[in-house]
Write a structure and sequence with these properties.
Length: 361
């Protein structure tokens, strides 16, 4: 016959069972906690990945918007340049037509006067010869004729009339030179390359700018020094190169006059030197002024569109840009600016004599 369990053993068993139950409960809680942690980590990873994707998309959108903005800005600037070039081309074409028409209208009556002055001079000489013959044949005219001779002062009349006709001859020749320069300069609408004399283009441009070169107010004459070496005719757009010469010479005149205004006494003589030479197959033109010069920071932007240092209303910032395009793009040449040893500025143009082949004289 077995004995009954001891009370202590029964208590231990119950305590053990209770501990085992608590342990199972804790393990289940731990497992649930682990699952929750894993779920949270997975959610956190998904959230982080989603956040990274959103940030990357936003960054990509930002870059795309910036790139699109830059593209639109570049397109707008290109459209503005094209518009400005079209307007400038249209203005220069209209100017060329207008100048050519005016030159033609002036040339007709001036040629008529110039052509008849020679005949008038001969007729006057013949009349004076006749008067001399009469005076020799009749040295003692009647009183009425003697009064007229004293009144008109025949000796003075003979001398002064010849001077008057001579000055009229010089004046009509001057007008014809101006008309010839206008015609040369106004060749702005020629669509094809043609062989042209660059010296003629320079001279016609200087003739057009005579009013800027003459003394005005406190400003003295601008001295122009020509150092022309022989050049062959150059295949080019003559009117467009004349436009380049006009832009560069106008800037040079502004530079030397501004320098004269601010220079202390004794003031330097405003001076522009134009040099031409032949270098291999290229015609070279140097336009040098003794102005105040151009700082390096400005010189780097000279040929940029719309860049100007002139006051509002005095410059558009397109003259040098258009000149650069004419020389570089349309004539496959070079156009650059350098300081001179004396502190002035030198612009250099290099143009191939022929667009194909060698340059020959």
């Amino acid at each position: 016959m077995s004995s009954a369990p001891h009370p202590c053993d029964r208590s231990s068993a119950e305590a053990y069972a209770a501990l085992e139950k608590e342990n199972r409960i804790l393990r289940k809680k731990l497992e649930r906690s682990e699952q929750d942690r894993q779920v949270l980590e997975a959610n956190a990873e998904r959230s982080e990945a989603l956040m990274r994707k959103v940030i990357a998309d936003l960054e990509m959108s930002k870059n795309s918007v910036e790139a699109r903005g830059k593209e639109l800005e570049a397109t707008l600037q290109q459209l503005q340049l094209m518009q400005t070039q079209l307007v400038a081309a249209e203005k220069m074409s209209a100017l060329g037509t207008l100048v050519a028409g005016i030159a033609h209208e002036i040339n007709n009556p001036v040629s008529f006067v110039h052509g008849n002055l020679g005949h008038a001079q001969q007729y006057v000489d013949d009349l004076f010869t006749l008067l001399d013959a009469y005076q020799q044949a009749y040295p003692d005219p009647v009183v009425s004729v003697q009064v007229v001779l004293e009144t008109v002062d025949l000796d003075f009349l003979q001398v002064d009339l010849r001077k008057l006709l001579g000055s009229m001859q010089v004046g009509t020749e001057r007008i014809r030179d101006i008309v010839r320069s206008l015609r040369t300069f106004s060749r702005l609408d020629e669509a094809d390359f043609k062989a042209a004399d660059l010296h003629d283009g320079l001279e016609s441009t200087l003739m057009i700018l005579q009013h800027r070169l003459k003394a005005c107010g406190d400003l003295p004459d601008v001295e122009v020094i020509r150092e022309f070496d022989p050049l062959p005719k150059v295949e080019c757009y003559p009117g467009k190169l004349n436009q380049v010469f006009m832009n560069l010479l106008t800037n040079a005149i502004d530079a030397v006059q501004d320098c004269y205004r601010i220079a202390p006494a004794p003031k330097p003589t405003p001076q522009i030197t134009i040099k031409t030479a032949l270098e291999g197959d290229r015609a070279v033109i140097h336009i040098v002024d003794n102005g105040t010069g151009i700082p390096d920071s400005i010189r780097a932007h000279l040929f940029n569109p719309f860049f100007t240092t002139k006051p509002v209303g005095k410059g558009t910032g397109m003259g040098l840009f258009i000149s650069y395009q004419i020389v570089i793009e349309q004539h496959h040449g070079e156009l650059y600016c350098q300081p001179t040893a004396s502190g002035g500025t030198q612009f250099t143009i290099k143009i191939p004599c022929w667009q194909e082949g060698d340059c020959t004289t």
